[in-house]
TrEMBL record:
The keyword Transport does not apply. GO terms for molecular function: glycosyltransferase activity. This is Glycosyltransferase. It is an enzyme of class 2 (transferase). Keywords: Glycosyltransferase, Transferase. Residues 462-534 form the Glycosyltransferase subfamily 4-like N-terminal domain. The keyword Glycosyltransferase applies.
Length: 749
């Protein structure tokens, strides 16, 4: 497989298509407008392709006035809106004529159709029309959806997720989505000159407002009864409704007629009809309280209403259902949560009072600040830096081969090398540790300026021998060595004279490598493991401070038994402490389970857990998988109790997630992690964890840990070190055999 990056112009160019009709003002149409506005704000040249002919330019006209934005309208003689197939073909043709740096698409049907086109790899896919839970995903009507979504994930550079809940769901359902899911929540753009509404003035009618479509599950018909019901409670109220799309529901044929009659004739109700978004927001700003109360069927939705955020940004507090997502947004004690019509009436009557109203208004205003156009542009700039990093200064075309049988620890580094301008990357994928196609490897070796061997195994031996005999003077060979190989026979067979640099992940293992192999000291350097701090930086779930996390329990030297000792000591005083273990089980690993000593130890440990009153209800086993970032949301402390490790990534991932690391001392641990996190024994570890929680220091400690990992092991820092190592040039401009030293990160004081 060959992937090439070419030089880019001064501005990044994006092609945008949503499988939505911008003539209808709803959340999906507003998304298309906001996406283009955010790209423009981020400095991107954007081309928006419309699905349907323009019948009203309420959303399109503001975009056409933006410099650097092109709107491709449907021809006037076009026959209807674009189908998903036609849209995929059109996007491919536009890109072929003048290639774009990224292609933003919304809509599952369309996304599926572009996975097999040349657009794959540059897709930024926004998914909303997907099953919202595991049961829906497994339902018969959705048979095949998981496979389609997996293909979309594989072809996408990013999957743009509206909410954290959707991101975690996709990562749990689709392993190919892990590491690609990034947040792009709804964007609130307040029209220029429109200020947040003033506080409600007691004594005048309470003005309620709803904007959007009229549909049964949106409870819009039930809303029309609110002025009457509030009047019975002594509250004078008006209801203002904006929108012109009345849903025809097959399960309730009479809904459309009832809804229209209510809009046209209900006392205390003002129907404003359809309006441009700016006018709808102006109407909203003159009201006191917004309505986003919906049928319970929608409580499990993984999408966040744009209308809620717009109203919040205008200083109009919103009545909405109590759900975990809404509690995360506004706080569990937000005063305007309501799930039934009676509860809606109750909270509205209460909100007529100034104290409750002021608290709700302040919560909504603060929440909306995270969803501004400026915040969205900032997110996009970060994703653009990750997907399209600037070229290293002075770099010319460099051909890089990455060779190995298992690249799971190198994936993001490989992505980074592929994304660099003027770098061409090829992968020599070996089917097994010692299995490969010699003809393919010879072709790769002849072509490359730099070869990177992931694992110091048969692949490194083969490339060192071939380059020693046939290589050019300007070619370089870099080998990454893990603990696994150091204790094998391969390093002794490696021709170190043909190797420019051996990379270890920790200072201790670099020293051990020099000692055990006798290789020249300057050929062995340290570049630590990477942690995708942006992916792991997610809000913790309630109760996380009492949850311990343990990742990977096999082989026995990981010492899960010591982690269980820690849990047992903690639960003697506080049964809220729970140990979550994310791992394959030992009997799922034949190389473990077939060894009698390993099997007997694990059997004894599981017997202990089952029989102990303290432990039986305090240990949770979760399946292994790449969705570690979402799993860590529930974890407040990540344990490392191993007998030995070369680096042990789990504590670093925990630190990036906002958890506190807790380690027992293994050789070299204090050269990777601050000794502050290292404890003498399980009892000391348990006592330290209990003290952090009891003394209210958890927030302080996790902030310290997060700062440490960002300073030393953040993905962008490690990627830069690898790029410097791989792309080092000799004085004549060619890739040369000059070792690059990458100093090991130092723990914080």
């Amino acid at each position: 497989m060959t992937e090439t990056n070419t030089g880019k112009g001064n501005r990044v160019r994006a092609l945008v298509y949503g499988d939505v009709d911008l003539n209808i003002i709803d959340g999906s149409a507003i998304w298309a407008q906001a996406m283009v506005q955010a790209l423009h704000e981020a400095g991107v040249e954007a081309t928006l392709v419309l699905k349907a002919q323009v019948r009203t330019d309420r959303l399109v006209a503001p975009l056409e006035r933006l410099p650097g934005v092109t709107v491709r309208r449907r021809p006037e003689d076009a026959t209807g809106p674009l189908s998903a197939e036609a849209a995929a073909q059109l996007l491919t043709e536009l890109d072929a004529a003048e290639p774009y740096d990224l292609i933003v698409v919304r809509g599952r049907r369309l996304a599926v159709r572009v996975t097999a086109t040349p657009l794959a790899g540059r897709l930024w896919t926004y998914l909303t029309d997907v099953p919202q839970n595991a049961a829906e995903m497994a339902a018969r009507p959705n048979k095949g959806v998981r496979g389609e979504l997996a293909a979309v994930a594989k072809a996408s550079r990013f999957l743009l997720c509206q909410t954290e809940e959707l991101r975690c769901f996709l990562e749990g359902m689709l392993h190919k989505a892990a590491g690609k899911c990034v947040l792009f929540p709804p964007v609130v753009v307040v029209p220029e000159g429109l200020e947040p509404a003033a506080d409600h003035t007691p004594g005048r009618p309470l003005k309620l407002v709803y904007t959007g479509k009229f549909a049964p599950r949106w409870n819009t018909y039930e809303m029309t009864a609110l002025p009457r019901r509030l009047a019975a409670r002594g509250v004078d109220a008006e209801l203002h409704m904006v929108g012109d799309k009345i849903h025809n529901d097959r399960t309730d044929p009479g809904f459309s007629r009832r809804m229209r009659v209510a809009l046209e004739s209900t006392p205390g109700l003002v129907w404003h009809g359809g309006h441009p978004r700016a006018e709808a927001m102006r109407v909203t700003s003159t009201c006191d309280i917004g309505l986003s109360w919906r049928h319970p069927d929608l409580d499990a939705s993984l999408e966040l209403s744009t209308k809620v955020l717009e109203m919040g940004g205008l200083g109009v507090p919103v009545v909405l259902n109590r759900t975990p997502m809404h509690e995360n947004l506004l706080g569990s004690d937000y005063p305007l949560f309501a799930n039934t019509e009676d509860e809606v009436v109750d909270v509205l009557a209460e909100a007529a009072g100034p104290a409750t109203y002021a608290e709700a208004r302040d919560r909504c205003l603060r929440a909306a600040r995270e969803f501004t156009l400026q915040a969205a542009a900032g997110r996009l700039r970060g994703y653009l830096r990750q997907a399209l990093p600037p070229a290293p200064k002075g770099a010319g075309p460099t051909k890089v081969v990455v060779a190995g049988h298992d690249l799971k620890f190198f994936t993001r580094l490989l992505d980074h090398l592929r994304s660099l301008p003027n770098v061409e990357v090829r992968v020599d994928q070996w089917p097994g540790l010692g299995k490969h196609d010699p003809e393919v490897s010879q072709e790769m070796a002849s072509w490359a300026d730099v070869v990177v061997c992931e694992w110091c195994g048969p692949n490194a031996i083969w490339y060192s021998e071939w380059l020693k005999k046939n290589g050019r003077p300007d070619q370089r060979l870099v080998v990454r060595l893990h603990r696994f190989e150091l204790y094998g026979a391969w390093p002794g067979r490696l021709d170190i004279d043909a190797v420019d640099q051996v990379v270890c992940v920790s200072p201790h293992y670099a020293d051990l490598t020099r000692k055990m192999t006798g290789w020249p000291a300057d050929k062995v350097t340290v570049i630590p493991n990477w942690v995708d701090d942006a992916q792991f930086g997610r809000a913790k779930l309630p109760g996380a401070e009492h949850h311990l996390g343990f990742i990977g329990l096999a082989p026995w030297r990981k010492r899960l038994d010591l982690a269980v000792d820690v849990l047992e000591r903690l639960r003697r005083d506080d049964p809220r402490f729970t140990l979550f273990i994310k791992s394959k089980l030992p009997w799922d690993l034949p190389w473990i389970w077939n060894r009698s000593e390993e099997r007997e130890r694990f059997e004894a440990l599981f017997h202990r857990i089952r029989r102990s009153p303290l432990l039986a209800s305090g240990v949770v086993f979760d399946p292994a998988g790449p969705d570690v970032a979402s799993w860590l949301r529930r974890v407040g402390f990540v344990l490392s109790t191993s007998d030995d490790e070369s680096f042990h990534l789990a504590p670093a991932e925990g630190m990036a997630s906002g958890a506190v690391p807790a380690l027992l001392p293994w050789e070299g641990s204090d050269r990777i992690y601050d000794p502050h996190w290292i404890h003498d024994d399980p009892a000391a570890m348990a006592d330290a964890i209990a003290a952090v929680v009891a003394e209210g220091r958890w927030e302080e400690e996790r902030a310290r840990a997060n700062e440490e990992v960002r300073r030393s092991y953040a993905l962008d820092l490690v990627c830069d070190r690898w790029a410097e190592l791989v792309l080092t040039r000799s004085s004549d401009g060619a890739a040369g055999r000059t070792p690059t030293t990458c100093p090991a990160p130092t723990p914080s004081a």
